[in-house]
Protein 1
Amino acid sequence: MAPPQRILFSPEKICMGWQQRQRAGAGLYNLGNTCFLNSVLQCLTYTPPLANYLLSHEHSSSCRQQGFCMTCIMEAHVNNAWNTSASAIQPRDVISALPRIGGHFMLGMQEDAHDFLRCTVTAMQRACLAGSSAWDTSSQYTTIVHQIFGGFLRSRVTCCSCKAVSNSCEAFLDVPLDIEAASSVTAALENFVKPERLAGENSFQCNRCDEMVTALKRFTIDCAPRVLTLCLKRFDFYGKKIGKFVQYPQYLDLRPYMSQGAAELLLYTLNAVLVHSGGSCQAGHYFCYTKASDGLWYQMDDTLVDRCDINTVLAQQAYLLFYVSPSAIAVVTQNLAKELIRIVQDTVIVTKQYKKFLQIMMAKLRKEACGRTPPRSALLPPARKEEQL
Ligand SMILES: [Zn+2]
Ligand SMILES: [Zn+2]
C-alpha cells in the first residue's frame, strides 16, 4: 500500500493506558428494545484509547462537521456516562441519531448489536474525515478511529503448479469468526488462517501459468489493531442462532495468526464481552461485561451496573469480544512514571548520575506503559525544566 500523504492523527497521541481511574459510570435506560445499542455503547465507553480521547474533549474543540457528527455525539455520551452522579442515564442523543448512524435502523426494533457497532465506528470514522474527504486511501487509515480499531488482513494465493504468489491487503475494523466448527476462539482463529484450497469451480487464474489452476489461499493478519474486535458469527442469513458456548481466553496471543511471526509475545487482554441471550437475532436480549478504568469487571445490563469476577466474564455466550493490545496493561507503571517525572521536576539539586538514572528509568517505564505509542506530552518533562537540571 502506498504511504499516506498525510497523517490525520498522530499515533503518539493515542494513549492505551487509562488517563484517569475510577469505578464504572452510569447504567443506561432501555428506551424500547435499545439493549443492542446500550451494550455497544457501554463496551465503547470503557475502551481505553477511545475513552481517553473522548474524555479529553479534543475532538469537539476542533470539530468542523456541520450538523450530525457521530464523534461529537459519542464524546458527549462518554463524558456524561463517566461524570454523572446518577446511577443511570438516557442515551437519547444516540437514539435520535440512529437513522443517521444507519439508514436501515428502525426506532423501537431490536437490531443486531454487531451491525450497530460497525455503523457507529464507521460513522465516527466519517466524522474524523470531515473536511478531508479528498485524502488518499492510505491517509484515511490514519484517523484516530482507524488507528484504534483498524488493522490489515493479507490474502495470499499460491499457485500449486508454478508456486507463484499473489498478495492483496485489505483494511478491517473487526474479524468475523466462523464458530460452527470451533469450540474456542483460538480454534476459530486457527481455522481463519488455515489455507483454503481453490480448485474445480473455484480455480484460480494464475498469470504466470496463464490458465486456471488449483491454488491455496490463506488469510493472515498483516497489521494488528490496537483494539481487536472479534465477532463470533452466531447468526446465519435468516437470523437463526448458533447458541453453543465458545471458549475465549482472558489473554490472547495473536502471533500464530500474523503474516510475519513476531519474536515477542503479542498478548492481547480481554476488555469487554458483549453477550446475546435468546434464540434469534430479532429477539432476545443484549448485555455486556466491561473492565472499567479501576481495573475491575462490571456486568452492564441496561440500567444495572454491578461488580463481577473474571470467571463470570469468561463463562458467557459471547457475541462480540474486545481485546486491547499489550501496551494498554501498564496503568500502574504509567502512574509510576508520572510520579518519577514529578520528582525530577520538583528536585532542585539533582546530580548528573541521578538524572541519568531517572531518565533511563522513565524511558523504560514509558516503553512499558504505552508500548508502540508513548504519549510524549504526558510523560516527558518539559524541555525547559530539563535545562534547569
Ligand atoms: Zn464532531
Ligand atoms: Zn501458476
Protein 2
Amino acid sequence: MKIAVVGATGLVGSVMLKVLEEYGITDAEIIPAASAKSVGKEIKFNGKSLKVVSVEDAIAAKPDYALFSAGAGTSKTYAPLFAEAGCTVIDNSSCWRMDKNIPLVVPEINMHDVTSETKIIANPNCSTIQMVVALAPVYREYGIKRLVISTYQSVSGSGVRGIAQLKDEETAGVASAQFYPHPIHHNIIPQGGDFLSEHTLAVGGDILSEGYTGEEEKLINETRKILGNKDIRITATVTRVPVSGGHSESVNIETEKPFEIADIRALITKMDGVVVIDEPSKSEYPMPLYCEGKNEVFVGRIRRDNSAPNALNLWIVADNIRKGAATNAVQILLRLLGK
Ligand SMILES: NC(=O)c1ccc[n+]([C@@H]2O[C@H](COP(=O)([O-])OP(=O)(O)OC[C@H]3O[C@@H](n4cnc5c(N)ncnc54)[C@H](OP(=O)(O)O)[C@@H]3O)[C@@H](O)[C@H]2O)c1
C-alpha cells in the first residue's frame, strides 16, 4: 500500500506522519510531498529517511491514499488529479468541506457518509471536529435546537506563522503584527480569519452579514453538515489566544427534549475518543496545556444552564493539530482500511 502525505513538511503533515507511526501504519510506502522549495529534503518516518518529492511525482507514484494538508489552493488543483489516478484523498483544507458531493467526516459520527464511490473525503475544521465529537451523543439522544459557541483558539491553528509571531513576541518582547493584525502575546484577538462580506448565507439560510468571520462561518456550516441537520440554530465567536497548542471552547446547548444532567454526563463519557475531566471541587477540568500531543477530546464543566429550558454548558478542549487535523484524517484512513 502506498500513502502520499501532501504537505509533509508542514505542522499538520509532520504530525500526520507521527500519527501514522503511532497507529501502526508502518508497512505502507510513504510518499512525502511538499512545495518545490522542499523537494529533496529528508524527513523521517518509522526510523527511515525519506526524500520529499513534488506533488506531480507523488501522483506519478500512484498512491492508494493521499492525506492532504497543504492549503486549499493545493487541494483544489491536485486532489482531483489524485482521484483521477485512482487514489482516495483525505483532505484537511477548507477546499471541499461544503461541496455537497463530498462527505465531511468525523469517523466516530458519520463515516456512513463515505460510499464505495467516494474519492475525496473532507476533514472538518479543527474547532468543529472537537466540538461535534462531544455534541454527537447529546444530539442523538436529545436533539439540539441551538448552540452558542465561544472559542479560545491556539496560535498553532494558524500554522507556522502564528506560532512564530507568538514566539517572537514572547522572547524578543516584540509587539508585532507580523501575521495577526495585532500582537498576540498578553492579548486575545477576537478575530479568526477574515470578516465576511455582506449577505453571506450559511447552511440553513442564516444571513451572516453582521460582522461574522470565516472561522465562525465554518463552525456553523460544518456542524450542520456533519450532524446532518441544517435547522440547528448556531451562533459563534472565535478568538485567538496566546496558547501554543490546543483549542478550548465554551459551548452552550439547548436541546429539543428535556434531559437529566447525569445522563448527559454518562452519554459524553461513553462517547468514543472523549475523556471527561470534571471534578470542580478539585479544580479538575480540561486545559490546553495538558491536552497537547493527545488524540482525545477532553470535556469538563458539564452543567445545567438554568437561564433557559433544556440548556447546558460544556467546556471542550483538544489538540487542534491532532484530533483537530492529523489524527482525525488518519482515523478516517484506518476506517477505510477496515481497522
Ligand atoms: N494548523 C491547524 O490547526 C490546522 C487544523 C486543521 C486543518 N489545517 C489545514 O491544514 C493545512 C496545512 O496547515 P499547516 O498548519 O500544517 O500549515 P503549514 O505548517 O504552513 O504547512 C503547509 C504545508 O503545505 C505545503 N505546501 C504549501 N504550498 C504548497 C504547494 N503549492 N504545493 C505543495 N505543497 C505545498 C508546505 O510545503 P513547504 O514546506 O515546502 O512550504 C507545507 O508542507 C491548511 O490547509 C490548514 O488550513 C490546519
